[in-house]
Each structure stands twice: as structure tokens, then as C-alpha cells.
Predict the structure.
Amino acid sequence: MRIATFNINGVNTRLANLLDWLKAEAPDIACLQELKATARQFPEVAIREAGYDAVWEGEHRWNGVAILSRVGAPVVTRRSLPGDPADRQSRYLEAAVQGVLVGCLYLPNGNPRPGPKFDYKLAWMERLIAHAAGLVTVDAPVVLCGDYNVVPTEADIYDSRSWKANALLQPESRAGFARLLDQGWTDALRERFPEQPPWTFWQYLREAWARDAGLRIDHLLLNPRAAARLKDAGVDAAVRGRERASDHAPAWIELADTDPA
């Protein structure tokens, strides 16, 4: 089973790119973030014609998450992250597909900092850590994937000197990600590429793509049952180079269909 995560940066704006990628790579499950579309604006018909069932949580102008599947309709288990009933931002969606529980997340960016946006980022991370503590022990494969808006280490960025004040690299952000891993989650891209994980994001500014000045902020975390099935992981970086591309590229994993003997 191939499971991918892709911050599409506007699902309708990038629909042609999305459909081309789905046709070329045919992930079994695709998690999308930053839909920038309300529930009614989600392109359900086009995605269904591409061979995918879909569930989604939209939001006007910003945020929004979706889970697409070509191996059976996703069964939604949660449409928001627990811990703050007043939080109405569409940033978390969870569904079961073919025996795998998939959490699709769009963690807040947190800029500018200091300020309320960074405070919200850290509070959202605390809620994620609390929820993930229950998921990591589930007796089935669980994949928590999406745009975490965290650069975990200095090896996950081309050059951090111009990013020192950015919320993605702050000690609090990195500590929160490390606490997730300490629960027992496996960072799939780091597992596959221990020395130099591939980038997943390149800014539109300063010719970042042309210079390969990238960052790794899109992650697929696996609980022990999923990690035991991990066969491969990677990034479809060429997608970033297409016309009208998102500033992210899809990241993916391959899971074996059964547990190892």
C-alpha cells in the first residue's frame, strides 16, 4: 500500500497538477492539506472520476484537509483534533482505510513569532501529542502524516542561517516533534534516508526550487505496527517543478500488506 501526503496549496488552483500526479503515481491513499476551499468547493466529481473516494474538511480561504483512497472508501473516525472545542480551523482528519488508520494533519505555521500565531502553534502541538499518545499503541497500522510545519533538525534544511527567527525551526517546535517521536513513532523518511532526508518544500521566493534550497516539513510518522511493514519511502520532487505547482512536493511510503513473519 502506498500512502502519500501532499500540501496542495489550493486544491482547485492546482487541480490539474493533482490529477496528473494521481494518474502518474497512483497512490492508494493520498492525504491533502491546505485545500483553501469550503466543503462545497471541494472538487469531488473530478477526484471521483480519477478513481478516488474522498472525505474532507474544508474552510473558506485557508486550511482544509482531505483523505483520498482508491482502495475503498475512507471511514471517518475523527474530523477535528480533540482538546479545544472552540477551535474551528480545519486542520485534522482521521479515517480507516483497508485496516490502516490514517491521520491527515496541517499543523499551524506559527509565524510571526512571538505572538498569538506561535502560541496557537504550540497549543495545537500539545493537543496533537496528547492524541497521538493513544494512537501509537493501537493494535493496527497507524500513519500520522501531513504538513507539520516543523524542520526537525539542521539536516532537514538547506541552510538555516536565514531561517533562525522562523517558527518552523524554533526550539519549542523541534522539541514538540521530538516528543512525538519519543512516544514510539517512526519518522519514515528519516528511517529511509538517515543521513540526508529529501526536501519536501521549496519557497516561491529567491529561486528556491532552481537552487534546490529546500526544507523537510512534510512528515509521515508510523506507529510500531506500521513501521514493521515499512518497505520504502520517498518524495516525488519533480512535481514541484511543474507549471503552477504547489510549493510542496508529495512525500510517500510503501507498506507491506501484512505484518512480517
About this structure: The helical segments are 15-25, 44-49, 116-135, 171-182, 188-192, 208-211, 224-227.
